[in-house]
Each structure stands twice: as C-alpha cells, then as structure tokens.
Design goal:
Structural class: alpha/beta
Number of strands: 19
Shape: elongated
C-alpha cells in the first residue's frame, strides 16, 4: 500500500511539472517562437504517456478529443489553435486528474507538510496549490508567501529566464524559498554552471535536500549547487565582486528578512538597494538602447570637451532638493556680484533657476523615459550647453537648439565602444554632474539642493517639475545635515552612498568638497558649510 501511495504521489508531482511545461509551450507558440515551442512540445509528448499510468483518474473521452485537436492543429500548422488546445487540455484533462489524486493523497501530503512545519518550529507552513505544487508561507513578522500560490514553477522559470546569460561563469542568488528558481536556472544551464544560493534560513536548504516535495529536488545533491547559510548577508555581499558572476535576488526572500534592529534593517536595505540598481537598467533596457543610438546622431560633441572650462574653477552643482528654497537667493546674489563660480544644474531645477534669473553654465539630463522631456519643454531655444547621459530620452537631443554633449557612461557597452571618456553615473543625474566636475579637475565643488532626504516632508524644491509632498510610508532614517535624523528612502540613500564612495577616489582628494545644502542628509567626505560662507 505504501509503495502505491508513493508512486501516486510521484505521479501527482510529475503531472504538475507537465502542466508547467505545457503552459511554457503554449506561451512560446503565442510568441511565434515555433522552433523552441516545437522542441518543448516534443518533451511534453513524451511525458503525456505517463498520465495513463493511473487510468482511474483519467477522463478518456476528454483525453482522446484533445489529442485529435492537437494532432489536427499540428498537421495544419495552425499554431494559434494549438496554443488554445493546449490550454484547454490543462483545464479539461490534467487539472481534474490532479484534483482526483489530491483527494486520495490529502492525508499523505498533510503528514509531510506537518512534519516540515513542526521541524521548523512553526517558522513556516507548506500549502498545496491547485496545480499540484507545494508553496511556502513564511511566518517572519508578517506572513509572506515565498513562491506562487498558483504555479510556482512557471513563476520560477520566468525569473530564471530573465536572468539567464550564457556567458555567466556562475550565479549568486540571494534567497532560497523552496528552490524552484534554482531548479529552473539549473535546467537553463543544463547543469553546467555553478549556482551559489545564500539565505539566513538553513532549514530551507534541509527541505530541498530532503527531497520530499518532488523529483525536481534531486538537483540539490549536484555538486554544482552550493547552499550557503548567511545569517547577515556578509558572505553574499563579499561574493558580488566575483568576476563573471551573475547576481539574482529572490525578492520574496529579501522581504521576509527581519528589520527589528538597526543592523538588520541596514542589511535588508542593502539588498533592496541592489535590486533597485538591477531593476533600473532591466526595466528600461529597450529604451536605453534606442536612446543611445538616436543620441549619437544628434549631439555636437562629448562631455569631456568641456573640461577646460571647469578645470581649476569653483563649481556649484545645483540639485533639486527642497532645501534649495533656503539659499537659491544667495546663489543669485553671488552671480549678480560676479562671483568667480561656474554653475552646473540638473534638468529638474532648470526652470526654477531661469525663473529667478540664473542662467547655468551647463545642464545635466539623464532619464531614459519620456517624462524627462518636461524638464526642457518650452526651453528648447536656450543657449545653454546640455550634457546628456548617453541613454537620455532621445527627443531632448533631437529638439534642443543649443549645444549638446554626450556623457558616455561606464559599464554600458555601446557607450564604452565609442572610445570616449567614461562617466560613472551613480544612477542619479546629480551624481553624474558630480563625477563630471571631479573629472574636470575643479578646484572646489559646492553642492546645494542635494538633500538626499525628505526635508520638510517635500521631495523637491518649489518651482521644479517634480515637487510633491511625501508619505512616511516606506521611508528609512539617516543622519541629517545638522547631526539630526532625517527621513529618506532606500533609493536616495543609495545615491548618497555613491557620492560618499566617489569622494574617496584619488582624483577627488585634491578638490575642496563642500555640502552647502543646509538641510537633508549628511554626506560623509564633505565639509558642511552654509552657502553664504563659501561663495
């Protein structure tokens, strides 16, 4: 009897894998990737014979009718109908099988799940999905699912496919969950690449190695799969510099991390910031490449051509933080009195400067999406040089009448291949302007409006194109300009930390670095002096 139950359980779990394969094949047919769809359908066809292993659960008439439709659509190469038929096959044939089997296996499965939950001291619960996969509910302050409650394997495949790169020599993954995404990545690499998985909960590794949730867990005994307990993420962080490695964050596993102490909150924040950096590029990748190839055709030169104008000069970088409202008049008075300073500003604050009578020496614009055009709309006839990150929204370079210079960002291969000076953007237009001023060998760099925090619950200075009030939700705290505590975000903290690292570089050490924002976050490596005392 026990042997029959075990075989039925294996049959049930394998059917779940079959359903996922069919959904993947269906998706490939709809995307007109017929070669890949055909290869996967060949695998599906081989697996289909196994569903007759327990005929008492099979609706033979529905099974035969589906097969006739599948064969007909294949013969006529009607791949639209084939995709629809595969979808119907899942719901009309396979899901009823799963429901019938689950009814007979419910006690057996409950015993497995209960034993896992008890061994975890109540830290987690395993639940069943309708397709026949286990999913994981983690009790860590808030109850969180670490994988899909519908088709966790399909979810995992999509994550793995998004991150798979054939040239990667290894993969470093933060977050185990039940390991579906590790399995999916292992399948994509054909087991040829080392995969390192880090998590705080070693018990999740034990579940994987135990192998009671499905035959797919056998991969966790492969020596190319490395499961590493990492209580405070230091091992994972140390691995980020490994050459040739691809970094993947399983965000449900990041979100489950505790943040009860400042140390825990900071470690969690670091992982969230890393994902933010990864997502910024991935989510805008198509626009980034389009913008680059358009911009190269419509600029007048490259940013380093302007270096001589700033070498040895006192440079004020005007960002759009809310504290700018405190001292913009001081900058205006200094310029009216012919102070020997050069003014660089970010596009967000350009309109505000023009409105108070300040004409900057150059304007930096960076964002890849079209909303950034609002910064220049109606100002296209200004005779002020624009310095554009090479992937800035292309219509700015196309429509602006003044001089336009391209700043080629490091790490972006098409820009690197141009052979010009490379700039570290730090994912922020303010950090790009700072990198430019440092590379231009300015004598003194003064930051204003560089709050990197929500000063007075505002995100930007008045009169800028992005000003809005903020909510305390999803904010963190940071040391303030005056030694107090200020509210900020993970993203703003990431920008601030980039500045702090950049200021430690050799080429920045001879420059006088002053934060004259008079509000916002404290920036290590800069002197904090009011603007009226430095210009």
């Amino acid at each position: 009897m026990e042997n029959n139950i075990s075989k039925l359980y294996e049959f049930y779990r394998n059917n779940a894998l079959l359903i996922t394969k069919i959904h993947r094949a269906e998706d490939l047919y709809r995307r007109q990737l017929y070669g890949s769809a055909g290869n996967l359908f060949t695998e599906v066809s081989k697996d289909l014979s196994a569903i007759e292993q327990f005929p008492e659960y099979l609706d033979k008439e529905a099974f035969q009718n589906s097969f006739i439709k599948i064969a007909s659509s294949l013969n006529s190469e009607d791949f639209v109908l084939l995709a629809d038929t595969l979808d119907s096959f899942v719901y009309e044939v396979l899901l009823p099988i799963q429901q019938g089997v689950l009814s007979d296996l419910s006690d057996y499965i409950s015993d497995i799940y209960d034993s896992i939950s008890k061994a975890s001291n109540g830290l987690l619960d395993i639940e069943e999905t309708a397709l026949g996969y286990p999913t994981l509910l983690h009790h860590s302050g808030k109850n969180r699912y670490l994988c899909s409650t519908v088709d966790p394997m399909l979810e995992a495949y999509r994550l793995a496919k998004e991150n798979f790169t054939p040239e990667s020599e290894s993969y470093r993954i933060w977050g185990m969950g039940l390991g579906y995404h590790v399995y999916a990545l292992y399948q994509l690499t054909h087991g040829s690449t080392d995969i390192y998985v880090y998590d705080t909960d070693s018990f999740l590794f034990d579940i994987a190695k135990l192998g009671k949730l499905g035959s797919w867990q056998e991969i966790f005994h492969d020596p190319r799969i490395h499961l590493i307990e990492d209580p405070d993420s230091t091992k994972f962080s140390a691995s980020l510099a490994e050459e040739g490695t691809k970094i993947i964050l399983h965000m449900p596993s990041v979100h489950k991390l505790p943040e009860g102490t400042p140390h825990q909150a900071e470690k969690k924040s670091i992982l969230k910031r890393l994902q933010l950096t990864i997502n910024t590029f991935e989510e805008q990748k198509d626009d980034i490449y389009l913008n680059f190839y358009k911009n190269v055709k419509h600029v007048d030169g490259f940013a380093e051509e302007l270096f001589p104008e700033y070498e040895g000069q006192n440079v004020v970088i005007v960002a759009a933080g809310p504290s700018l409202d405190k001292n913009i008049h001081i900058l205006k008075d200094a310029l009216d009195n012919h102070a020997p300073i050069k003014v660089l500003c970010v596009g967000t604050v350009l309109r505000k400067l023009i409105n108070v009578g300040i004409t900057p020496d150059a304007v930096f614009v960076m964002d890849a999406n079209e909303v950034v055009y609002a910064q220049l709309e109606g100002l296209e006839h200004l005779n002020v040089p624009l310095i554009l990150n090479s992937s800035t929204y292309f219509k700015i370079a196309l429509n602006y009448h003044g001089k336009k210079y391209l700043a080629c960002q490091s790490g972006f291969e098409p820009a690197v291949k141009l052979g010009h000076r490379l700039f570290s953007t730090g994912s922020s237009v303010t950090t790009l302007a700072l990198d430019f001023a440092i590379q231009a060998k300015a004598a003194k760099i003064i930051l204003i409006g560089c709050d990197m925090a929500y000063t007075g619950d505002a995100s930007h200075a008045s009169g800028t194109v992005q000003v809005h009030n903020t909510s305390k939700e999803n904010t963190i705290t940071a040391k303030g300009y005056y030694g107090d505590t200020v509210s900020t975000t993970v993203q703003l903290s990431m920008f601030r930390e980039w500045i702090e690292r950049r200021l430690t570089s050799e080429d920045a050490k001879s420059i006088k670095l002053i934060n004259a924002t008079e509000g916002g976050a404290f920036i290590e490596g800069m002197k904090h002096i009011p603007l009226k005392e430095v210009i």
